[in-house]
Automatic annotation (TrEMBL):
Gene label: LOC108707709
Keyword Hydrolase: no
Organism taxonomic ancestry: Eukaryota, Metazoa, Chordata, Craniata, Vertebrata
Gene Ontology terms, MF aspect: ATP binding; protein serine/threonine kinase activity
Protein origin, superkingdom: Eukaryota
Name of the protein this chain belongs to: RAC-gamma serine/threonine-protein kinase
Coiled-coil boundaries: none
Regions crossing the membrane: 12-35
Gene source species: Xenopus laevis (African clawed frog)
Amino acid sequence: MCGTRTYMAPEMLMVIGYGMAADWWALGISIYAMLMYELPFNNEDQNELVNSILYDEIELPEELSEDASNLIYEVSWP
């Protein structure tokens, strides 16, 4: 396993094996960061960061366009 935790898919953090879906997850996180100017899961405490990725849901602001919201959800959670 390698990479930046902030962009890691839950299955990578649980060490249960992963495939291309982990790359789609990272793309969704990247799109979110580009649109929102912040990361959806951002915590300096690494344990809290991992728990957020595993258990928290990403909440998109209402002012984000429907197309942008759909893109983030469809890329990350097909």
